[in-house]
Amino acid sequence: MKNIKGTLVRRMQGLVRAAERFPVSVAGFAAALLVVYVIIADDMNPPLILQKMVFTIVVGAIIGIAIQFAVERFDRLSGRRVAAYIAGLLLTLGYFLILLPASEISDAVVIRSLATIFALICVALWVPSAGGRADFNRIALSYFKTFATSWLYAAVLSAGFAAVIATVDILLFDVSDEAYAYSMATVWILFAPVYFLSLLPCYDHRQNALENGSGSGLSGGADKSDYPRFLEILVSYIAVPLVAVYTAVLTAYLGKILVTQVWPSGQLGPMVLLYSAAGLLIFVLASLLDNGFAKAYIRVFPKVLIPAVVLQLISVGIRLEAYGVTESRYYVALFGAFSLAAGLMLSFSPVSKNGRVALLAAVFALGSILPPVDAFTVSRNSQIGRLEGLLVAEGMLDNGELKAKAEASELTKAETTSIVNYLQNSGGLAYVAWLPEDFKAHEDFARTFGFERTFKPAGGQRYAVVSLDPGVALEVEGFDQLLTFDVTRYEKEMEPLSQRVELSGETYEVKVVRTSPADAVATLGIPGGGEALTIDLNDAVSGIVPEMGAVKEMMLPEAMTVAVENDRVRMSVVFRGIHLYEMDQGEIASDYSFYVLVGDK
How far is it, in rounded angstroms, from Cα 351 to Cα 368? Predict the structure, then answer.
């Protein structure tokens, strides 16, 4: 019992020391937690300003960690800790002011924030070893161990909280589902990072001199940086052989490419990216080991990494030439360039200089978010250039003036659709000078370019899509009942869908029957054996659906309506969505979703 109590006391003291050592960061994580509490209480539908605050606070907390390590490492900053933290707060404020005009938390905001955080973590990893005062590899090991420990503690604590809440909910009284969200937020936003910080060694050589009677070394470094036996086995006898096997597979694939002269179509990039990232991490961890497997890995890995990355860069270059730059291709190419530089650096440097790789990673990450070479500017300019090249070649763009052309080639239609969609999703349409100022892809595409949006076949299957504008009210005057039906292509022999309605005291039956994979029939049965009203859905959509491969969205109700009537009743079908699919053998299949309106006369 005393041991448990002592352990808890030491852990609490460690958390307190972490707050004293990293006051801005701990305060930042606590503030982020409070904001997340507000978001949870608001049913997870937070206003935009709260989302921006969370991003800003997290970035500020990471800045605080990097500043504390810089204060501990550099003598000139040791007496200016307050000034350094004020500078960090100003940087955080600057980040918030950059974020403030954003109309949404877009992919660009998320990627820029993650790249900034990654760069700051790399700097925080490198700073203690700057100038060779501490061993970068041992610092990286301490980071790895403390991260694994804090993650494990947080995972166990999360499972424990969830079990307790579930037990109370089942056995005692109802517990709100928000209790889970509050507990998980507390563990992962506050406890996990603060506990991680509490386990990190102190890199202040001045404090170490006072505590240890020497002018160098890490506070607690002797025991916190020792290499665990299980980790040595994991790295030397499991991870290193796995990387060797993966290397053999990549080498065989390279040989296949050289023989067949067929280059990969994009699948190689993520594989080499994973190989490089895992290999570099294992390289740093293996640098502290003295066994044969580790030494061989240190000697060979940087050399074999270089040709694998060159192969990947050639593959990426082929795709960039064909399809231009997008954010994902930019980062794949950027990581390839980083891996190539890291491989060359590690091939000709001792392991004591491994810290340069972390600094290099920070430089690449920051470069990817700073205009004019950032991922978003480069990608936007590349895709606008591709679009203009296509339209000029098609004769649709001349001296900055766009001319609609209904007879454009299928390639131009599909590529134009793809690029315009990309630019709209990334906010790049505003930079296309020759488009109308208020251009909206979903509404104005056909009018601007002269053809409907057209998509390339997915997996060999062509399709056409038409959908109703949900923002326009339906005209229901003259009708008494509105019914909803959905018919899918998988229901080739479905049971008839049927709904009964009352009109002028008589009971009518609306029935929908699937007659083939492409067709269905809607029928309004007349009481007393009168002639039924019938609408063949396949015939009805023949004048609505564009050619296969095209998409028409936000259609007005009158363009999506087919009506029939007799001297007693009337029936209209208003399509909400029409999806036609051309199957492998050329057979057409369909999905229909529609309203049926019926009324007497």
Answer: 27
For residues 40 and 184, the answer to whether their CB atoms sit within 8 Å is no
Q: Distance between CA atoms of 279 and 282, rounded to whole angstroms?
A: 5
pLDDT tens across 405-457, in order? 888 888 898 899 999 999 998 888 989 999 988 888 877 888 899 888 887 76
Of 123, 110, 14, 106, nearest in space to 63 by CA: 123
Do residues 286 and 235 lie in contact, with contact meaning Cβ atoms separated by under 8 Å? yes
- State the sign of the Cα–Cα–Cα–Cα dihedral 63, 69, 75, 80: positive
- The phi, psi pair for 204, rounded to 5°, reads -85, 105
Give CB contacts under 8 A, 24+ apart, made by 358-361.
358/122, 358/123, 358/125, 358/126, 358/136, 358/140, 359/122, 359/123, 359/126, 361/118, 361/119, 361/122
Q: How many other C-beta atoms are found inside a 10 Å radius of the C-beta of residue 132? A: 10
Calpha distance 596→481 (Å, rounded): 8
Angle between helix 48-73 and helix 107-126 axes, rounded to 10 deg: 10
Residues composing the chain: 601
Q: Is the dihedral of CA 276, 300, 240, 127 positive or negative?
A: negative
**CA dist., res. 210 & res. 29, Å (int):** 30
- pTM (2 d.p.): 0.77
In this structure, the strands spanning 520-525 and 550-555 are unpaired
The residues with which 466 forms a beta bridge, in sequence order, are 552, 578
The backbone torsions φ and ψ at residue 491, rounded to the nearest 5 degrees and listed phi first, read -95, 65
| CB neighbourhood size of 537 (10 A) | 24
Residue 106, exposed/middle/buried by CB under 10 A (0-12, 13-18, 19+)? middle
DSSP per residue, 147-183: HHHHHHHHHHHHHHHHHHHHHHHHHTS---THHHHHH
The pLDDT assigned to 262 comes to: 76
- Counts for the chain of helices (H) and strands (E), in that order: 21, 13
Q: φ, ψ for residue 10 (rounded to 5)?
A: -65, -40
| Cα 298 from chain centre | 34
- Could you give the residue ranges of the DSSP H alpha helices within 426-458? 441-449
Please tell me the distance from the alpha carbon of residue 68 to that of residue 24, in angstroms, as a whole number. Answer: 9
- The span from the CA of 161 to the CA of 147, in Å, is 21
Find, among 573, 463, 462, the residue nearest to 520 by Cα. 573
Q: Which tens digits make up the pLDDT trace of 347-363?
A: 998 888 899 999 999 99
Ranges of residues in the chain whose predicted pLDDT is under 70: 1-7, 204-225, 264-266, 457-461, 491-495, 528-531, 549, 583-586
Q: Contact, 168 vs 183, CB < 8 A?
A: no
Contact (Cβ atoms closer than 8 angstroms) between residue 455 and residue 547: no
Distances (CA, A) of 281 to 269, 284, 350, 360, 383: 18, 5, 16, 14, 35
